[in-house]
């Protein structure tokens, strides 16, 4: 989608990715899953400048976190983390266990079109 703002065309790419890394909705991007919980979203056509990207978990548990990082004109990464508090038997204190986990998510990238 392209919107005009002055002389600059705004570009918007949005979509939904399933937990297994398949594209459920949207156009203008491809998905790779190099490891559990890591999704690399590549734009079919690059942005002119680095876009702003927002992602939200889909069908998530209260203990999951989503992180968007490594954004550039061609791609961005999404990592899903599962946060689990483990209570050992006996008098030990609780420990936080953090691991990558599969999860579906929605995203939107907005920036200058090329």
Q: What is the class in the CATH system?
A: Mainly Beta
Count the E strands.
10
User: What is the second-level CATH architecture?
Assistant: Sandwich
Q: What's the structural domain tally?
A: 1
Structural class: mainly beta
Percent in helix = under 10%
What does the model show?
The chain has a single domain (2-112), classed as Immunoglobulin-like (Sandwich). Helix content is 0%, strand content 62%. The protein has no helices and ten strands. It is elongated, with a radius of gyration of 17 Å. A hairpin with an 8-residue loop joins strand 8 and strand 9 (95-100). The protein is an all-beta fold and 114 residues long.
Helix-strand layout with pairing:
Elements: E1 2-5, E2 8-17, E3 23-26, E4 29-35, E5 38-43, E6 52-58, E7 64-69, E8 75-86, E9 95-100, E10 104-112
Note the main attributes of this structure.
elongated, about 110 residues, single chain, Immunoglobulin-like, 5-stranded antiparallel beta sheet, mainly beta
Brief description of this entry?
The protein is mainly β and 114 residues long. It is built from no helices and 10 strands.
């Amino acid at each position: 989608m392209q919107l005009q703002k002055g002389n600059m065309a705004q570009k918007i790419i949005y979509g939904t990715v399933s937990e297994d890394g398949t594209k459920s909705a949207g156009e203008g991007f491809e998905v790779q899953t190099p490891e559990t919980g890591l999704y690399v979203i590549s734009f079919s056509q690059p942005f002119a400048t680095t876009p702003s990207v927002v992602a939200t978990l889909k069908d998530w548990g209260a203990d999951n976190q989503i992180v968007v990082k490594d954004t550039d004109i061609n791609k961005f990464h999404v990592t899903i983390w599962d946060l689990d508090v483990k209570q050992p038997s006996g008098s030990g204190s609780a420990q936080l266990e953090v691991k990558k986990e599969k999860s579906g998510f929605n995203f939107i990238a907005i920036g200058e079109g090329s």
